[in-house]
Design a protein that fits this description.
Strand content: 5-15%
Number of strands: 10
Structural class: alpha/beta
Largest sheet: 7 strands, parallel
Oligomer: single chain
Number of helices: 25
Length: about 625
């Protein structure tokens, strides 16, 4: 159960706009999580919201920042978790593969430098020309570095004839076409008559070049941590990492971003949209470039390819606020309130029904929040624990389970869920907005199911599984996964107010998880790998029992409880690099259940890149 605070209920948008408008959801950002937020979090969240609002204003004024933020969560993760970059970070990348990469990059950098020259010709401001020339010279220095690497391998760059692979060719052709003013399938603008048109082409070109600079700076910073580890004192790719993590490269990235912002000032909204599309296309081509660098040896990413083709992959996911941007209890509460409103209108209202319904939800929410905080304080150990203490954690979460059952009983006894039409629930599910990347992940997961042995399960506290079924039906995945949740009881098409209580607590989830794993073990002789994706305290036991437990987001209560009982939260990318390092040493990477280690991610795109690849 996930009841929400009265203030959150009061801030919820009218039901129709709540479900239809993504912007209204984003602007409200109430993240209905009172069952995982402590009292101290409210002030933290308030300050975080203030900082986020300030940053949003800054980013809106800066096209380069806005474009980067639009691709960072997706494309940047697909580059970071590519087999090539992971092996580069681990230090185990084969020299021959790196040599091919450098040769391809030399080919690309020549086109990059040529695009700078063409942009400089189009720019009509002397300062802009100087900036572009400076950036071009930095690329020429980068080419010199690459050439020195090739000479060290006995390859003379002047005599070497590099054949570009298809990914490199597509990227170079795109840059030169953009710098030539050829957009929309290669159609040029004809004769460029005015300085403004020339400047616009310069802006388009810079917009297509900026993603490369920002992505390399991002990768350099992400990989820099591996140079500081004792076992990597002599990292074979130290020079590469230092080059792109250096302040000088970050300065170049910021310089081209500032140039893009300056060139964008005089552009129309439509022209800015063109730059945004060029930026996204360039970033995708950059990601393709990394994925085109094929390794000789095995890679731990994507996991679906690393696993033995005959082994079974079992994926489990929570639903509320793991998959969704809004908690299902808020959706069902709003439907219940609207149902009361309809009853008022039918009786010639407005009468007491609507006000009573909203007041009752507020009372239930207030009581839930107060008792939840008391329950959390009760289950936390009074003294620091040594190491991972699973048994104590399980005992504490049993107390939480008893509390959740009492809270659900109060909702049922209130009768507030009576009279809801199942069609309203289904419509809500069809319009419910999922977390960025969640929809495409499940759609691609279904495609994977056609190629390997894969089971998909959704485990949820949601009061009404019909809502979940409607969501995944709209995604196109309903027939390919199993949903384990609570159910509404109906008379005809209207809810009776009763809930068939199948899953109410962390312990209930764990029992279902174990039952499903046990069924797999009893019906197949092949090995299996289990992955659980969740975001809250209610997922903690399943996360720990899965071979790989992935935590989405940054729930303060999950971390507080987990850390109090010795659970470690490790960012996914460094963990993947560590597993790759084991594989490079001919060791078998082990993802161990009940190890007390959970892996944290910021988005579904990161999960997608890790499990499924590009």
């Amino acid at each position: 159960m996930r009841l929400f605070s009265p203030s959150l209920l009061n801030r919820i948008a009218p039901f129709s706009s709540l479900l239809i408008s993504n912007q209204s959801l984003r602007s409200k950002t109430f993240l209905l999580r009172s069952n995982r937020v402590f009292g101290s979090d409210s002030s933290i969240r308030s300050e975080s919201e203030k900082r986020a609002n300030v940053m949003a204003v800054v980013e809106e004024a800066s096209p380069s920042r806005r474009f980067w933020n639009e691709v960072k969560r997706k494309e940047a993760n697909f580059a970071l978790l590519s087999p090539f970059v992971v092996a580069l970070a681990s230090g185990g990348l084969e020299t021959d593969v790196f040599k091919i990469y450098v040769q391809q990059d030399v080919y690309f950098l020549k086109a990059f430098a040529r695009a700078y020259e063409m942009a400089e010709e189009c720019a009509d401001d002397d300062d802009d020309k100087t900036t572009i020339s400076t950036l071009k010279n930095a690329v020429l220095d980068e080419l010199k570095m690459h050439n020195s690497v090739l000479l060290g391998w006995g390859v003379d760059p002047a005599k070497e004839t590099t054949v570009a692979n298809p990914a490199t060719t597509r990227y170079c052709d795109f840059l030169i076409a953009t710098a030539s003013g050829k957009l929309d399938s290669g159609k040029g603008p004809g004769k460029i008559a005015t300085p403004f048109e020339m400047t616009k082409i310069a802006a388009y070109t810079v917009g297509a070049m900026t993603p490369c600079m920002r992505l390399y700076a991002h990768l350099g910073k992400e990989l820099e941590i591996f140079l500081n580890q004792e076992e990597n004192a002599s990292h074979p790719y130290k020079k590469w990492i230092e080059t792109y993590s250096a302040k000088s490269f970050e300065d170049s990235a910021r310089q081209i971003e500032e140039l893009l912002d300056k060139l964008s000032i005089s552009l129309t909204g439509e022209e800015l949209d063109v730059i945004g599309k060029l930026y996204q296309q360039a970033m995708k081509l950059e990601v393709d470039f990394f994925h085109a660098q094929r390794r000789i040896h095995s890679s731990v990413v994507p996991l679906a390819q690393y696993l033995n083709p005959k082994s079974k992959l079992i994926l489990f996911s929570d639903f509320d606020l793991t998959c969704t941007t809004v908690d299902s209890s808020a959706i069902l509460a709003e439907i219940a309130i609207l149902t009361a409103q309809k009853a008022d209108l039918a009786d010639g209202g407005p009468g007491k029904s609507l006000g009573d319904a909203r007041a009752s939800w507020n009372d239930l929410s207030t009581l839930y929040t107060e008792e939840y905080e008391q329950c959390i304080e009760t289950l936390l150990p009074s003294e620091e624990v040594s190491g991972f203490q699973y048994d104590k954690l399980y005992k504490g979460l049993k107390l939480l389970s008893e509390f959740e059952r009492r809270a659900n009983a109060r909702v049922i006894d209130s009768g507030l869920l009576r009279g809801i039409n199942v069609e309203d629930i289904k419509k809500a599910g069809e319009r419910l907005i999922l977390q960025d990347g969640c929809r495409s992940f499940f759609q691609n997961l279904v495609n994977l199911k056609q190629k390997r042995d894969l089971d998909i399960h959704v485990l949820s506290y949601c009061w009404c599984a019909d809502l979940i079924r409607s969501v995944f039906s709209s995604v196109g995945c309903l027939d390919h996964l199993s949903i384990h949740s609570n159910e509404f009881s109906y008379e005809g098409s209207l809810s009776t107010g009763e809930i068939l209580r199948n899953m109410e607590s962390p312990v209930d989830k764990l029992e279902k998880f174990k039952s499903l794993i046990s069924t797999v073990c009893s019906t197949t002789k092949s090995d299996h790998m289990s992955v659980y994706i969740g975001d809250s305290v209610g997922d903690l036991l399943c996360l720990l029992h899965a071979d790989i437990g992935i935590v989405v987001g940054s729930s303060a209560s999950l971390r507080k409880i987990g850390e109090k009982f010795g659970v470690s939260f490790v960012p996914l990318f460094p963990a993947v690099v560590n597993k790759q390092r084991q594989l490079d040493k001919d060791e078998v990477p082990v993802w161990r259940e009940s190890s007390g280690v959970l892996y944290t991610v910021s988005s579904w795109f990161e999960i997608h890149a890790f499990l499924l690849g590009q």
